[in-house]
Each structure stands twice: as structure tokens, then as C-alpha cells.
């Protein structure tokens, strides 16, 4: 008795014509992609549409999938291009929408400090799109730098440099919030 | 250098919440899946759909083959008589260079959305595809030839028209094999430039004209013209993205 099939095994079955394998891949990836699109477009309907477009392209490009390659970066590369294409069509900058979405979504989990999370999102919103893309894919999606390089079309070292600069900038942006929160905690404790 | 520990804790919780809460309601998920099915697996692909679903390597191969056949047919009976003379090496070199460039541009035009190419690489290939023919046309590549005379303008017109026909035909073949109807400017322009390069190879094989002005006007601008034509048509049809 084996555990759940890996993405790669499902992809292999899908390439062999197994429709159910495609459905399983869809159920694994659609929610994550939806979250990613929602976060960067701020529109529920649009996020759903982009998820649909991504899977249409996944199906159309299936012959290009190299057997043995990782599925996740491949799917995210398609999603990233679908998203990029959307912003090109609208001639809008992702920064604006990220920022709008940040202000649009006030609810947070009870244990998480609202101010802090907002500060983090705000800081992410301050980053240039190329840097934010790397950070979001790394933190939120859990992709490795090597996988991200394949998704964004940059070299491994370029992605690492981009991430390093982004972390540095984030720290600079978050320092005032951290100082403020530490001060508040000290006041409460005393 | 990374954010402070408290930031990281908050962020980790935000990430967890994001991952858990990013899910769609299952009925919405099923609706999207049904829609994807109806447009892909349930729907038998059209003839063009079948071409689109070929792997990129196969599409590049098919397009290259089609362009070679188109070029051969369009130059049939029009092959320049001096090809066997001393210029053969130069012509072969020029055609090989343009052909290689055409392959790179075709690859760019047929790239699928699963591939991410750095913007500077796109610009470099497209710039070469558009710039090299222009540059080549400005060089006196056939210094020995002398075809200037009273019919110069009509020769330019006929040669340009024939070249444009081959180029548009070539660009049409590339567009036919492109996966998406809509695309960014660089991809649409790449299709046109690839067609123009194919047209220029055909012209080089069939036209013995050696004066710089003729080559520049009738041959060299084909890639630029066809690229502009493709971008114009795509823009009019609302298929140009960005």
C-alpha cells in the first residue's frame, strides 16, 4: 500500500492519457494558484479566470513537459507567464494591485498581529515586482531558488542576489514596526 | 541579513494562513475544472489545435521544414544564374547566417508559456533578427555585380513584392504554429521577423542584384516590414498583449 502519488507520478499518468490524474493535479495546484493570483490581482473573479487559463496552458503545453522534471516549477512558470500577460494586457503595474489587495483584506488569523502582518505585506508592496516575485515564490509558495530561476527566467545566482537585496530592503522597511511593537510589549509587561 | 525573529514568526503564520486559506470552495473548484475540461480534454482539438499541442521542438522542426519548402517553391525557376560562379561561397555563408538567425527567431516566436526567457535574451534575439538583415543589406555584399540601369526601380519593386510575398507566407506559417492567439509584442514581431528572414534567404538565392541600394530596399527590410505587418494585424484584431 503506497501513499499519495507524487506530482511527477500524476503528471506521468496524465501524459499517458489518465484524465483522473489531471483532475488530481488540478485539485492540488488550483487553490495555491488561486491564492497567488488573488494576492496579486485583488479580484476573486480574475483569480479564478487566471487559474482556468493556467490549466488550459498546462494542457496545451503538456507535450513540452520533460519526463522526470519537477512539476511544481513547471506549473508556476506557466502561471507566472499567464499573470505577466494579464498585467501586460491591462498595462497595469502589479505593485498597485498588490497594494490595493493589502488594504482590501483586513482580516487576519487571531494569533497574528494585524499591524505586523500588514507591515510585512506593506513592505512586500514596496519591493520592485521582480524582487517581490522571488520573495513570494520563495516564502509563500516554498519554491527553491533554483526552481524560482526556472519560473522567472533568470539565472540561479541572479535570483539569489535578487532575494538577498529584497531581504535587506525588507529588514530596513520592517525595522520601525519591530521597534514600535517591541516598545508596546515592554509597556504592557511593565 | 533577514527580518527580525518576531517578523519571521508573524510571517510564518501569515504564510500558513495563506496556504490554508487560499483554497477555493470545492464547488467553485469543480466549476473551474469542468470549464477546463470542456475546453481541453472533452473537446477534440481542431486541426490547428493539434498543431498547437505539438511539443515546441516538433513545432520548430515543422515550421523550419515548411519555411524551407516555401522558400524552395518560391525560388523555383528563379535561382540566380551566377550561383555557381565565384560568389557561391559568399551567398552560402549569407544564407547559412540568415537561416541560423531565422531558427533562433522561430524558437522565440514558438516559445510556450511554460518557458520563461529573460527579457534581455528576447530583446537580443529579436534585435538580431530585425537588425542583421538591415545591416547586411547596407554592406556591398556583391561588389562585382552591376545591375543598375533604367529598370532599377521596377526591379526593386518586383523583387520587393516577391520578397514580401515569401515573407508574409513564412510569417503566416509561424503564426499558425503559435500556441496562443494572443501574445506580447516581442512574440508577434518574432513571427514576422522569422518570415522576413526566410523571405530574405529566398531573395538572396534568386536575385543577383549587387547594388547596395537595391539590396537594402528590396531585401534587407523584409524582416522589419513583416514584423511591423504582423504587429499591426495583431493590434487591429486585439491580439497584441502589451
Summary, kept brief:
The complex is a heterodimer of chains A (190) and B (242). Chain A has 190 residues and is mainly α.
Please describe what this structure looks like.
The complex is a heterodimer of chains A (190) and B (242). Chain A is an all-alpha fold. Chain A folds into 2 domains: 1-104, Rna Polymerase Sigma Factor, Chain: A (Orthogonal Bundle); 109-190, Arc Repressor Mutant, subunit A, CATH 1.10.10. Helices cover 77% and strands 0% of the residues of chain A. Chain A has 9 helices and no strands. Chain A has helices spanning 7-15, 19-41, 44-60, 71-90, 94-104, 114-126, 129-140, 145-152, 156-189. Chain A is elongated. Chain B is mainly alpha-helical and 242 residues long. Chain B has helices at residues 5-21, 26-39, 47-52, 56-75, 88-109, 119-137, 152-177, 185-206, 212-220, 222-236, and strands spanning 183-184, 240-241. In chain B, helix 6 (119-137) runs parallel beside helix 8 (185-206). Chain B starts with a helix and ends with a strand. Chains A and B meet through helix 2, helix 3, helix 4, helix 6 and helix 8 of A and helix 1 and helix 2 of B.
Amino acid at each position: 500500500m503506497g501513499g499519495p502519488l507524487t506530482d511527477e507520478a500524476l503528471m506521468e499518468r496524465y501524459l499517458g492519457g489518465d484524465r483522473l490524474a489531471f483532475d488530481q493535479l488540478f485539485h492540488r495546484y488550483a487553490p495555491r494558484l488561486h491564492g497567488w493570483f488573488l494576492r496579486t490581482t485583488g479580484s476573486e473573479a480574475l483569480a479564478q479566470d487566471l487559474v482556468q487559463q493556467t490549466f488550459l496552458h498546462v494542457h496545451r503545453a503538456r507535450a513540452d513537459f520533460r519526463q522526470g522534471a519537477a512539476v511544481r516549477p513547471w506549473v508556476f512558470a506557466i502561471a507566472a507567464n499567464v499573470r505577466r500577460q494579464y498585467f501586460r494586457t491591462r498595462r497595469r503595474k502589479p505593485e498597485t494591485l498588490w497594494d490595493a489587495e493589502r488594504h482590501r483584506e483586513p482580516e487576519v488569523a487571531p494569533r497574528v498581529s494585524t499591524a505586523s502582518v500588514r507591515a510585512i505585506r506593506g513592505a512586500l508592496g514596496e519591493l520592485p515586482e521582480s524582487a517581490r516575485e522571488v520573495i513570494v515564490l520563495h516564502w509563500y509558495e516554498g519554491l527553491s531558488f533554483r526552481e524560482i530561476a526556472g519560473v522567472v527566467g533568470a539565472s540561479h545566482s541572479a535570483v539569489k542576489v535578487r532575494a538577498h537585496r529584497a531581504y535587506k530592503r525588507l529588514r530596513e522597511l520592517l525595522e520601525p514596526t519591530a521597534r514600535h511593537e517591541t516598545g508596546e510589549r515592554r509597556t504592557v509587561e511593565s | 541579513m533577514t527580518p527580525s525573529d518576531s517578523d519571521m514568526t508573524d510571517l510564518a503564520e501569515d504564510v500558513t494562513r495563506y496556504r490554508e486559506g487560499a483554497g477555493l470552495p470545492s464547488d467553485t473548484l469543480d466549476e473551474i475544472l469542468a470549464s477546463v475540461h470542456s475546453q481541453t480534454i472533452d473537446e477534440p482539438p481542431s486541426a490547428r489545435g493539434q498543431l498547437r499541442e505539438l511539443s515546441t521542438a516538433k513545432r520548430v522542426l515543422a515550421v523550419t521544414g515548411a519555411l524551407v519548402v516555401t522558400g524552395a517553391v518560391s525560388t523555383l525557376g528563379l535561382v540566380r544564374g551566377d550561383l555557381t560562379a565565384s560568389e557561391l561561397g559568399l551567398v552560402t555563408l549569407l544564407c547559412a547566417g540568415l537561416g541560423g538567425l531565422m531558427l533562433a527567431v522561430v524558437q522565440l516566436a514558438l516559445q510556450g508559456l511554460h518557458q520563461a526567457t529573460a527579457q534581455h535574451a528576447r530583446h537580443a534575439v529579436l534585435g538580431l533578427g530585425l537588425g542583421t538583415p538591415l545591416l547586411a543589406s547596407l554592406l556591398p555584399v556583391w561588389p562585382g555585380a552591376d545591375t543598375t540601369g533604367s529598370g532599377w526601380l521596377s526591379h526593386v519593386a518586383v523583387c520587393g513584392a516577391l520578397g514580401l510575398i515569401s515573407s508574409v507566407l513564412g510569417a503566416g506559417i509561424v503564426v499558425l504554429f503559435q500556441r496562443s492567439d494572443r501574445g506580447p509584442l516581442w512574440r508577434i514581431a518574432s513571427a514576422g521577423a522569422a518570415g522576413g528572414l526566410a523571405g530574405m534567404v529566398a531573395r538572396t538565392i534568386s536575385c543577383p542584384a549587387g547594388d547596395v541600394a537595391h539590396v537594402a530596399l528590396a531585401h534587407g527590410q523584409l524582416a522589419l516590414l513583416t514584423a511591423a505587418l504582423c504587429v499591426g494585424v495583431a493590434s487591429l484584431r486585439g491580439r497584441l498583449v502589451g
